[in-house]
Known about the structure:
Layout: H1 3-22, E1 28-31, E2 36-39, H2 52-59, H3 64-82
Antiparallel strand pairs: 1-2
Amino acid sequence: MSExxxxxxxxxxxxxxxxxxxxxxxxHPFVTDDAIYIVEANPNPYLxxxxxxxxxxxxxxxxxxxxxxxIAEMAIIRGVSxx
Length: 83
């Protein structure tokens, strides 16, 4: 099995497990040539440690403090670019 197929299968397995454990609202995985993304469709997801979005980030290798810091950095950049 190719690395890409293995990654897709892994993302699908994680999405299925998350749907069973947390309900289908966790998000939807999609794969590019470089990465696997979980799209959170909720415009106001819970960001608390242990909640769905934080859990998905941690499953992707992002520790909770780094995840929150990245969100803050992106918000600052977005605010500056909008002037």
